Amino acid sequence: MRRLLNAPILIEILRPLGQIIIFVAASGAALSVLILAIAFLLRGSAAGLMTIKNYGVDLFTYTLINLPQVLIDGVTIGFVYAAIALGYTMVYGVLEFINFAHSEIFAIGAFVGIETLIGLNNAGRLTGIPTWQAYAWLALAILFGMAVAGATAVTMERIAYRPLRGAPRLVPLISAIGVSFFLQDLIRLVESLTTGQFYRVFPTFGNFDERITIGNLPFGDTTIELGIQVKSLIVILAAVAMVVGLNYLVNATKLGKAIRSTAQDRTTASLMGINVNFVISMTFLVGGTLGGAAGLLYAMKFTRIDPFVGFFPGIKAFTAAVLGGIGNITGALLGGIVLGMLETFSGSYLNVFTMGAAGAEYKDILAFAILIIVLIFRPSGLLGEQVGQKA
Q1: Which residues, 6 or more positions from 389, have their beta carbon under 8 angstroms from its beta carbon?
Q2: Which CATH topology does 74-348+360-377 take?
Q3: Domain range list for the chain
């Protein structure tokens, strides 16, 4: 039994799962205490009186009633950002530059996956099918999105980044921005030539829009129903699988050891017989496939996409990576969860606390303001940078 528990494969699976539980619990508890404290202090203010008038309960009670569902929604969007942030972290960990074109890799995965499902839907393959078959078609679409996104990332590295590898850091960064604009217009061109539409909608099939009731919490004369949509649960489970899989790949495989060696010292790794070009290509492949999967999961969650769909999620995922500690896989997870919860808490309560003066549209400002504060006092992020570690 002890030998089984000490097996590397089991350790590298259980450790990230434990970290996920700790991060979700700690982030949720900290933000819940903060938001309840604010509600308690404002309960006698004009905002508190308005809450009683509009909802029939005081501000603190209103906040407490909605808190469980807000936590569930925050965890869902947090895992989306964490899944996208993994791609930024992988590339930065090896090459130490920000791949700003990763948001378009994300968009390509979303478009390929949705077009696959739309084609199946037009062929009548998604109508009246059993639940297991709907999940099978969804998995196939995700695999297609991952394949095309990963191939695009590898091609991008070979053409736009590898020739600039010895150049100053600003040069590949500018190249990444150029690749980002190129891929945006490429998506528009392909869509205009094939469908003539720039907006694509995730087709309705299966039971993805159904809501699962988790339980009911009695609260005085009110019963709070807790629930989560099936598609949100799929997003969470897929993101957890990506985090665990990437952690195992990096820490318990020969390729992972080569990636860590290359990240630590490219020259020495090359002298030790490691094919640095191959390792970097594999890094882009892994990051691209993760981004492609995250793209379709995002499309399933928010239904509609366009060629610029990767911009805001990409910026927020980059923010999550920096918040947790750029180059740190665990940090990307923590940053995504924290940012997702901040965004959901702000969108849910900011309008009530400010009496409509600042609505949900200001949630991004608050999230980025907290990021700035964190970086002022801890520039390396919450968990610190982890560009290279002992291989």
Answers
A1: 260, 263, 264
A2: ABC transporter involved in vitamin B12 uptake, BtuC (1.10.3470)
A3: 74-348+360-377
Task: Measure the CA–CA gap between 388 and 282, rounded to whole angstroms.
Answer: 17
User: Cβ of 279: how many Cβ atoms within 10 Å?
Assistant: 21
Question: Contact, 142 vs 293, CB < 8 A?
Answer: yes
- Give which of 95, 9, 88 is closest to 279, Cα–Cα: 95
Q: What is the DSSP secondary-structure string of 255-321?
A: HHHHHHHHHH-HHHHHHTT--HHHHHHHHHHHHHHHHHHHHHHHHHHH-EE-TTTTHHHHHHHHHHH
Dump pLDDT digits (tens) for 213-253. 776 766 656 666 777 888 888 988 998 888 888 888 888 88
Separation in Å, CA 205 to CA 132, 199, 227, 391: 12, 19, 20, 46
State phi, psi for 319 to the nearest 5 degrees: -60, -40
Between CA 342 and CA 74 the distance in angstroms is 7
Residue 332's nearest CA partner among 232, 243, 233 is 243
**Rounded distance between C-alpha atoms, residue 108 and residue 309, angstroms:** 10
pLDDT in tens, 35-75: 888 888 887 777 777 777 777 777 888 888 888 888 888 88
Helix axis angle for 8-42 and 329-353, nearest 10°, is 20
Rounded distance between C-alpha atoms, residue 84 and residue 187, angstroms: 19
Please state, in angstroms and rounded to a whole number, the distance separating the CA atoms of residues 70 and 64: 10
What is the number of alpha carbons within 13 Å of residue 239 lying toward its C-beta? Answer: 32
Q: Which residues contact 216 (CB under 8 A, 6 or more apart)?
A: 223, 224, 225, 226
**Amino acid, single-letter form, for residue 311:** F
| Residue among 14, 8, 22 nearest 333 (CA) | 22
